[in-house]
Specification:
It is built from 4 helices and 5 strands; from the N terminus they run E-H-H-E-E-E-H-E-H. It has one domain: Gcn5-related N-acetyltransferase (GNAT) (Aminopeptidase). 31% of the residues lie in helices and 23% in strands. It is of the alpha+beta class.
Length: 155
């Protein structure tokens, strides 16, 4: 048996990979709210892909989407009008975890943010395991630099 890992490439997730992305999101949030009708989901996906402010990056192995993250590049009137980035929805398919794919997709997202002159990139996680925190630190994030607060609408 060969120990050679298949080649991986990172790319912007294309329109036709919506179902693969949604399958990854099911692993990220198994108890997430149900999606609206298919036409609404596809319309939103097209809108997101056309926007210059949102990027959906994916790691592909043998043409299979195995890891992804979302980067929002947000215009800003501070820091010399340099935008800032927000990374969300970082997920690697459970069969492909611990192979460096998540770190590679995050590295790609950070490179993209720096190429757009972002003054910083922030990332939030709902996971509180030490291994997850170490993973994000190994990808270049500092868990101690800022404090995050989250508000949700009243039920």
């Amino acid at each position: 048996m060969s120990n050679v890992r298949p080649l991986m490439h990172i790319a912007t997730i294309p329109l036709h990979d919506l179902d693969a992305l949604l399958a990854l999101y099911q692993q990220l949030n198994p108890s997430d709210s149900p999606l609206p009708d298919r036409a609404a989901v596809e319309g939103l996906w097209q809108e997101l892909l056309l926007s210059s402010h949102y990027k959906y990056f994916g790691a592909y192995v043998e043409n299979e989407l195995v890891s992804s993250c979302t980067l929002a590049v947000i215009p800003n009137l501070t820091r010399g009008c340099r935008p800032y980035g927000l990374i969300e929805n970082v997920v690697t398919h459970e069969r492909h975890r611990n192979n460096g794919y998540g770190k590679a997709v995050l590295s790609h997202a950070l490179s993209f943010a720096w190429s757009r002159q972002c003054c910083k990139v922030m990332l939030l996680t709902g996971r509180n395991e030490e291994a997850v925190n170490r993973f994000y630190e190994s990808a270049g994030f500092d868990r101690n630099e800022k404090q995050a607060f989250v508000a949700r609408p009243a039920a």
